[in-house]
Amino acid sequence: MCDDDVDTATSVRRADSRLLSRVLTTWAELVVVGFVGAALGGVASGPPQLVVYLGTILASVAVLLYNVDRLVTTRMGGAS
User: Fold this and answer.
1) Is the distance from CB of 52 to CB of 37 less than 8 angstroms?
2) What's the pLDDT tens digit per position in 24-68?
């Protein structure tokens, strides 16, 4: 086994570890956003409740896009 094979195996394990870490971070952030949105939506009623609902959806999409961007940036940085 040459050094290149060992380096490749190590970098693959690091990439898998970063992916798992980012997935767990994303899940935790989405849970927090969901609970905050549910709490605020429960307090509000009528039109403000709709605004809170839409804000929660917007925050969830922002969390997903931010974390996907971080994954792609990390992956592209490792590829070059």
Assistant:
1) yes
2) 999 999 999 999 999 999 999 889 999 999 999 999 999 999 999
37 neighbors 55 (Cβ within 8 angstroms): yes
CA distances from 45 to 29, 50, 51 (A): 25, 8, 10
Alpha carbons 80 and 78: distance in angstroms, whole number:
6
3-state SS, residue 8: helix
pTM here?
A: 0.73
DSSP category for residue 76: H
State the residue range of the domain holding 58.
Answer: 3-79
Amino acid at 31: V
Q: How many domains in the chain?
A: 1
